[in-house]
Design goal:
Chains A, B: It comes from Kribbella soli. The structure is a homodimer of 149-residue chains. With 149 residues, chain A is mainly α. The first copy, chain A, has six helices and three strands. Chain A has a three-stranded antiparallel sheet with strand order 1-3-2. Chains A and B meet through α1, α5 and α6 of A and α1, α5 and α6 of B.
Chain lengths: 149, 149
DNA sequence: ACTTCATGCTTGCATGCGCAATCATAGCGC
DNA sequence: GCGCTATGATTGCGCATGCAAGCATGAAGT
């Protein structure tokens, strides 16, 4: 692929490291959020993403992209959250195919409660991972990522 | 948490970036491996991990850890691969509770076929991700990870 | 040897996921 | 307005996963 040969193995190893770190963190997040707030990581992500939008709403499509899930999974995810009143759907006025999703007040409250848990688990998971020699370089690299302005 | 306050949001953002990159890569890998070799990412990982062991075998438990899956998922994953003759189980002679798994010749052949696909997809996925401004820093960071000796 | 507890793997069950098919609305050519 | 295709979301279905319970083997105490 234009790049020297040994690079393939290097990329593969980088990917394994990334995947391992991701899996560990997600595992811990999943358990903690589920246990303490009844939220899966995907559900938390949806609320988080929506709350971070300036106008608090997104279309299903954009949501799928943001959480990297299939359309169908997104539909059902939104269903679950809507059933729990954490979320509202409403038709896009200008294009009646589109559907907007918006966090409700209850949703924001739950998110506010869950955020500290999320951050704490994340911190501890990262600290924990930093102790594993094969993961620690990636952890420190993560810490040095530039923040979007 | 011992660390200054704003760090929490920085960590959260790092995590979001990591998760997004991971999801995209895994998505592409999944599709390509499934289509071209009938393997899921987990299945590929198992074969890959086993083949990378010096003596080509691991216990179920170690395998669960290596691929970060639950015990039950590992059992069924190994079942599937065993049914396809890509893998063999055999009892641990010294502790009859333990079960070793070992790649078969067919398994190694399939892995050899799949590896180029895996590497190619990985490369293109990384190149693709490097074009997204929010992911590119992590991609370059990945490339700079030290290799284990 | 017998009980008790720990360890390793497997099974029952419920759930979330992706794919493909489907339905509804929009946009375009005529 | 009428077809035709494109786009957005939802539903049917099969499958992989996690949790918790279960079963088998090992280890330790008596």
């Amino acid at each position: 692929m234009g790049l020297p040969d040994g690079a393939a193995e290097a990329r593969a190893q980088g990917w394994r490291t990334l995947a391992a770190l991701h899996a560990r963190i997600e595992d811990e997040l999943e358990r903690a959020l589920q246990k303490q707030h009844g939220l899966s990581v995907s559900e938390y992500s949806v609320l988080d993403v929506l709350a971070r939008q300036d106008d608090y709403h997104l279309r299903m499509n954009q949501l799928s992209n943001a959480v990297v899930l299939s359309q169908s999974a997104t539909t059902r995810l939104v269903n679950r959250l809507e059933d729990r009143k954490l979320l509202q759907r409403y038709l896009c006025p200008t294009d009646r195919r589109g559907i907007y999703t918006e966090v409700t007040e209850a949703g924001r409250e739950l998110l506010d409660q869950a955020q500290p848990t999320h951050d704490a688990v994340l911190t501890s998971a990262l600290e924990h991972a930093a102790e594993l020699p094969e993961l620690s370089p990636l952890v420190t690299a993560l810490g040095k990522l530039p923040l979007t302005v």
